[in-house]
Amino acid sequence: MDNFHPRQRTIIKMLYEKKAVMKGGELAAELGVSDRTVRNDIAYINSVVNMDLIVSQNKKGYQLSDYVKASEIVANEGEGIPVLPEERINYILKHLLFRNRELDLYELSEMLLVSEATIELDLKEIKKLISENNRDLGLSRKAASISLAGSEKDKRALFSELLFKETNRNFFNIFKYERYFHHLDLTLIQRKLMQAVENYRIHLNEMAVVNLVIHIAITIDRIKSENILDMEVELDKVLGMREYKMAEELCGQLEDAFGVKFPRGDIIYISYLILGKSIIKNRYKEKKELEGIIDPQIASLTEALIASINREFGISFIEDDNLFIGLCLHTKRMIERVNSHVLLRNPLLDELKIKYPFIFELAVFVSKEFYKITGLVIKEDEIGFIALHLGAAFDSLNGNQTIKRKIALICPTGYTTSELLKSKLYSVYQDKIEILGTFSFMELDKLQKQEPDLILSTVKFEYEMDIKVIEVSPFLDQKDIEKINQHLYLYGNDIGRSRFLNDVNYFFRKDLFFKGNMFKDEWDVIKYLGNQLSTKGYTPEEYVNLVMEREKISSTSFGNLLAIPHPIVMNAYETVIAVTILQKPMMWGKNKVQLVFMFALKESDRKKLNELYKHIIEIVEKPEGVQYLIKSENYNDFISRILSYEA
């Protein structure tokens, strides 16, 4: 067996899965180590396999030279020893949940090949993770032993969260969960569930089906280890529910298949899961069709939430029946989930937060308004689902006001090729573009008179023109789309890239740039930057509390060593961004963070929020972009790096 450290195996695995060049900084960021450590690891890997398995690509980064050899190493990896702090935390938690006994810390230290001091740090993060999710769980410690104390329901919720987190990229692939349930046939559970769903005419989407299968598997596993659930409910009300009857029938079939006996508490638990994860099919086109289907109180609540967006942000969705209907149906189920403590996981949550920050902020605001009216607190996953509804409505609103970008094609290879390219373009951009026609090189004068915003050529273009020309394949691959997107976005942006670059010294101030700080936790970072903003007259005194209030609703860390804390309200005296580059990464919610941007926006600059985010995200959405900024020596170097960065 190759004598690799787990971290070195991880490097091989990352490069194998990426199937492309990865920068040293990107690898270092993922692993939480220095660039030098990555270089040393790669040199060691190459020496062990007696070949240049990992090669440097002209300062662009690293890439595998032999994917077959790498696949053999990856295939022999097995479960392995967790390398990253997050992996160790999950590993410890799973052991606490699987075993009905205490864990010895010395034994754990030897098992994970780390010091006892490192285990102690991991335990601090575990305590923090548990407390942040408002669970009735805690670490119980006796001398050098630990155990997990709390309700069985919360233990199951934590167990499911760990599983979904570890299989996040393959959320819908049920086979990815089989290694956690060696003795259970998940496919059989899924088949029995789908039969019951059909019999009782309950609607579940694919995500809900996977969710339920895993929860049922956890329930069987916990029953077998004699961890019984006690549900306090109004029994008469529950027994009459269609979902209870379905759960009772389903559990009866599973009892025969797996040789277990489902106590009534567990059947009730599964019935609430079915209720919370089922959906109401949207067959409606007009508000009036919901009469008699949706409680008038929910309809009034939905109207109030939509009106609050108009009042606070000046965005009117009041005439959008599709949003009203969708949000009504979602709110009905959401209230049922909150009241029965059922969590519906949102696999798109992280992507929503980083790619559509403005829409997510609208959803955070709606969740706050929802709490004011109902007194119910909704989880981050639910906020993500609200964002999906708002995003569709926002796209529809903007679609009605879209200025079409005019595109001219140069495609000398013939009619069929040009028609193929047109078809591809319209399938991607739909009503956002207008194709002026296909031109030859002899028709360039005619083309210029049409005043296109962009020219796309399927062959090398060697003529000088004032109009942007992009060379593309007639098959329009992903790289082509990215090049076109970049131009269309910069052309159509209200403030434009050039204006952003001119204004960068206004948004980022020298007196709000800090480097090399160390803090206990994210709350200390927020206090420090918030106080700097307030003391220097950029924001009112209550700014720190407002940022903390927003952070408690949903973490502003993005899993890319980056956090962007900010309040919901925009009450700054000036629109500025405070920056701190930490001496080393620290845990911020569930993610490591080393670069922090604290946004302060004034009311009159409301529309700039989304645009500012877009420009910043262009740089920091990739690990190497964050690493590039983290290496800034001082304020001037930081500004220079923002202005010169090329994605």
From TrEMBL:
Residues 405-496 form the PTS EIIB type-2 domain. Pfam families: HTH_11, Mga, PRD, PTS_EIIA_2, PTS_IIB. GO terms for molecular function: protein-N(PI)-phosphohistidine-sugar phosphotransferase activity. Residues 505-646 form the PTS EIIA type-2 domain. Coiled coil: none annotated. It comes from the Bacteria. GO terms for biological process: phosphoenolpyruvate-dependent sugar phosphotransferase system; regulation of DNA-templated transcription. Residues 180-284, 293-400 form the PRD domain. Keywords: Activator, Repeat, Transcription, Transcription regulation, Transferase. This is Lichenan operon transcriptional antiterminator.
